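User: Predict the full complex structure for these chains.
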Amino acid sequence: MDLIGYIDSKREEHLNELKEFLRIPSVSATSEHKKDIERAAHWVAEKLRAAGLENIEITPTKMHPVVYGESLHAPGKPTVLFYGHYDVQPAEPLDLWTSPAFEPTVRAGNLFGRGTADDKGQVHIHIKALEALQNATGGLPVNIKVIVEGEEEIGSVNLWEFMTKNRERLKSNALIVSDTSMLAKGVPSITYGLRGLNYYQVELTGPAQDLHSGVFGGAVPNPLTILSEMIAKLHDKNFRVTVPDFYKDVAQISPAERKALHRLPWKEKEFRKTVGAAALCGEKGYSIVEQLWTRPTMEVNGMWGGYIGEGAKTVIPSKAYAKLSTRLVPAQNPAKIAKLVERHIRALLPKSVRCDFQVLSTGKPWVAPYTDPIFQKAIHSLEKGFEKKAVFIREGGSIPFVTQMHDAFKVPCVLLGFGLPDENAHAPDEHISLDNYFGGIKSIALFYQALAA
Amino acid sequence: MDLIGYIDSKREEHLNELKEFLRIPSVSATSEHKKDIERAAHWVAEKLRAAGLENIEITPTKMHPVVYGESLHAPGKPTVLFYGHYDVQPAEPLDLWTSPAFEPTVRAGNLFGRGTADDKGQVHIHIKALEALQNATGGLPVNIKVIVEGEEEIGSVNLWEFMTKNRERLKSNALIVSDTSMLAKGVPSITYGLRGLNYYQVELTGPAQDLHSGVFGGAVPNPLTILSEMIAKLHDKNFRVTVPDFYKDVAQISPAERKALHRLPWKEKEFRKTVGAAALCGEKGYSIVEQLWTRPTMEVNGMWGGYIGEGAKTVIPSKAYAKLSTRLVPAQNPAKIAKLVERHIRALLPKSVRCDFQVLSTGKPWVAPYTDPIFQKAIHSLEKGFEKKAVFIREGGSIPFVTQMHDAFKVPCVLLGFGLPDENAHAPDEHISLDNYFGGIKSIALFYQALAA
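Assistant: Here is the predicted structure of the two-chain assembly.
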């Protein structure tokens, strides 16, 4: 049986196995899922072994383990390093899921469940592509090294220590990642740019303890009001971030790239529909695609304080909290931006509150020269695997590891994404298109054959 | 034995009986304490009977029963209606109590336990004052009606139905309440003003669902940012509420009242210590006491949205929430203020979010003319009972029942409070000063004698 025929014959088997993977609630953010994380790591290790990889290792870190496997039986052929992650975002709010987050369910050609698109489904595409090459062609056409980590959703805290410790062993000619999205349904895509991500937490303390808003209201600082006032000053009326020097190092895109971006079959109407808000808002002077892919942002990702239960409680809280993040673009420096953000926030706050400012993570932006031959081989494989025209795109999200690898290992990074922008990664009803899942397996298998040619 | 001598001779007995009352965990907020609520109601009924009251009734409501008793054997003398409550706030967080919340303990002249100050201790003061009059003087000098309810801490939901159903029976010449605080230790006080309270909840919806802040950040409305921007506009730089016409009906206090307020032995240093914030902030042009008692406020009592768990989640939330409240002063109209607040909030919001605005409750402010003879009799009784100079004060909090009674029954309301501002009502380590407890019993007994004179 030929490669594509073999993959087609295994559809049901592959899908059932993926569901098994998705049922493990491997949420990396909360300690209660520690055991599920372990289970997911072992599950990945077992499937790598089944795909014919060797020297399988589950390496503990200070938090969640890294799974490794390799196959080095193609002398003279390129060596590729595949990276993915088996951890997922928390599933909350649970009541907004149509079917339970960890009970994968197919509806209308899509598989629903936490991790379907980000990133378990895409990791599984790769494992099954390798297995198909082993079983249908008698072996892997290239040398392959696989790492699947468990801390991507919390900032890949310990991954880099693992990478540097295993630097010699992990050497490769290219890094392959599938943790991104296609531009749209029916438009297979290679991502050549990512934004960086800094994540911050702010804790304000006003009164020493919660106070009765009747007895004390009108004379004491309310940290929720003060936090709101601070956040309100983080953007100007043109939706530009007000942190001084925030845009100082931002590289303007070339006229050629801008033209290419505007030629993409990107549908504003679809985007508006996905967002579902009454109106959009973004930095003045830039198209939506430019805002999303080429401009830095400041977002409030969470905010809380005081009484948040049912009904009424007349409290002036002692504390108010916000989780903030900045998306970064070339050539912003994350450490420098973190300092500027902290300085600005402290400067905006009155002396009636104390501020604890924490940088939870930092991550650099990344852009690749997609004229490199490996990118051309990748895009042709996508076009064969999907039987559709493929495109080069950027993305607004962040994969810190890609930037680190690019900088430290000096190898091209090829981002073949099989998600879709409206598949609710990080949100309720996350899903993956089955067409993209199966097309992904074919494309990856074809890509490795092309790399060996 | 004279009245005061009798009360002094019963100190230990009174204290032990109060401890018995406090050991019943009559928390009204949670259904698990339903039986304790019943026990507390029966305990009160039994002690009213022991104090010589008649026609004792425990009237069930949709939630917690109201206890009633009366003594109408003083023809030609005034009739007073006493109101108190036997329910208490939840004791959580339990680990912050020095001694257990429902095991009353004396330390350094204070009795610690949930309900000591709010309001079981104060209800007990009244029961023991009545008993003392019966036993030491051979009868009550005035006609008295007593209601002790079990829902005060959850908004007195069913009390008003009870009041209107028993309207004729409850008629009186004055309402007496002990559920407030003295200005400070050693300063017996009568509260002649309370602020009203409107409570609101705002729900903003931006995107139709939570979105990935990488994929969508920079082009979509973030309801947390927009909620913050709205809240930031609710106060101007002088900490005045910006709602148009908010201050229009606010009555300025008279120069005489302002002078009296400034003469009070109110200690700013103590207040700052209790608040424990790095600095205070309040409406410009008013003293702290004026801000707390005579000026309306707008406070954020709770706020939430997005990811509020441990670590990082890169989400742009679909929804953001705030609980807001306004404290009101004479002659603001709660219904009118609620409309103005809603209109202002809607006007401040951009069209990129939808807003659901709910008024959870409204409540009128109240001020009494303390030159009325009954107030003069009350303050002289306090001075005799405590052997200290007593003062007239206002309070920033709200007791909706007082306003309702004042409006519906057209009677003077006399608020004799025996708590202290730092006795942790609603918080761990709630306590009452034993001096105030015993002084309270004497003052109330003397007050009823004075009323009959």
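The radius of gyration of chain A is 23 Å.
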